[in-house]
Amino acid sequence: MKIIHYDIKHGQVKVKIENLDDLWHLSTLIEPGDFIKGRTLRKIRLREEEARKQETKRRLVMMKLLVEKVDFKANLLRISGTILEAPENIPKGSHHTFNVEINSILTIIKERWLKFQLDKLKESSVAEPMKILICIHDREEAIFALSKRKGYAYLSKLKGSVAKKAVETKPKGSFYSEIIKQIKDYEKRYDVNHIIIASPA
Predict the structure, then answer these.
(1) At a CB cut-off of 8 Å and minimum separation 6, what does 77 contact?
(2) What is the pLDDT of residues 10-56, one digit of tens each?
């Protein structure tokens, strides 16, 4: 996580999310009652001239929320709350959800930052986590995950049709080839440092 601006006197920290671990760290730092500020996609109604129809478009706007709920799943951090600051055509007091991803930039505002929160923030900004892809498989199923500082992030499950022992049936395609293809795809997508493959097969 990159710290762009640090002003604890006014309770503000501006950060850039650089990896999946950062999303997890933010999910433990941001709490209901905090404020967040950043650019986010929002559906905006555009009224056509001399027409009653309304056209809706998604636009990137700057917004400030009072946080009500924080939800972290897989590769996405969702922060929901009430709009406090926004462009004129967005009603204040309405609800909105920030979808925070890698490369998102966010300002977190707290009335009071606790010491353990500041320590965790600094720790996540210094240590560069090792990107390790994990593949666990047997003859019929493979599970893929990325390692994190705390546990792992589940990516996907792959099922194959292979020949059963003591049964004369031909497998449909090569399951191991499918596993290799998926590993190469994740290796490129997440720029992993190491790959761990474990199997009883």
Answers:
(1) 23, 26, 27, 70, 71, 99, 100, 101
(2) 999 999 998 878 888 899 999 999 999 999 988 776 654 444 555 66
Q: Which amino acid is at 141?
A: E
What DSSP line would sit under 64-113, residue for residue?
EEEEEEEEEETTEEEEEEEEEE--TTS-TT-EEEEEE-TT-EEEEE-S--
pLDDT of residue 57: 76
Q: Which helix (H) or strand (E) holds 132?
A: strand 132-137
DSSP code, position 163: P
β-sheet bridge partners, residue 108: 13, 36
Q: Under DSSP, is residue 40 helix (H, G, I), strand (E, B) or coil?
A: strand
